[in-house]
Amino acid sequence: MDRALEFELIKDMGEERYNHTLRVIETALELGRIYKADLEKVKEAALFHDCAKFQGQINWLKMAEDFDIILDTYMEYNQDLIHAPLGAKIARVKYKIEDEEVLDAIYYHTTGRENMTILDKIIYIADYIEPGRNFPGLDEIRKEVFTNLDKGILLAMDNTIKFLVDKNKVIHPNSLKARNFLLMELNPRIR
Ligand code: DGI
Ligand code: FE
Ligand code: FE
After folding, report:
1. The domain that contains 121 carries what CATH number?
2. Which of 47, 113, 174, 185 counts the most CB atoms within 10 A of its CB?
3. Which residues form the domain of 101?
4. Which atom of ligand 1 lies nearest, measured to the CA of 50?
5. Test site for ligand 1: of 81, 138, 141, 153, most ligand atoms within 8 A of the Cβ
6. Given a cut of 90, is residue 30 above it in pLDDT?
7. Does a structural domain hold residue 131?
8. Is residue 27 lining ligand 1, measured as CB closer than 6 Å?
9. Is 142 near ligand 1, meaning CB less than 6 Å away?
10. Of the candidates 159, 179, 161, 157, which has an alpha carbon nearest to the alpha carbon of residue 170?
């Protein structure tokens, strides 16, 4: 890893989250090899996926405005979601990433979206199953991801949506669209 780049990322996100990033890279590369994704893109998207997860007290609305990000009402309401679109923007302007597929994978890494690309899927799920994570049900999901990527992702999305409902949290429409899309694709209509 380029030292200056590493330094910049650690300064912004802190050591702990940087270590999470390294684990996401390893997991994503492992999946990328299995599912035949472009490993350069996988590595780049994983490296920068949380590049906007700044430490400390951040005025996310102001930050979004400064970077010309258009936020929907759900992101204004739940500001934990802002680091994903903001990350795509920062990857573009600060880290000079030009690949739209990579930028999209960063943009949608928290919620997912309808009809996800293989790169979107790998970043989304590597973030969820990296070895530092410890959610209930994770062992089953880890196993499934390596057998059937879509089924594994659907389990992870179901888990996340259930968790959010239990916590009385607003669910972003992209999370619902992503889950519905996979569910319908995995269970085609019979008549
Ligand atoms: O940034 P990370 O912590 O590595 O992971 P992430 O970007 O997936 O963020 C995870 C958090 O985002 C987790 O607490 C669940 C939450 N989340 C995911 N989808 C939604 C959501 N929160 C809300 N309110 N609505 C969603 O649709
Ligand atoms: Fe994130
Ligand atoms: Fe992450």
Report:
1. 1.10.3210.10
2. 47
3. 3-135
4. 1
5. 81
6. yes
7. yes
8. no
9. no
10. 161
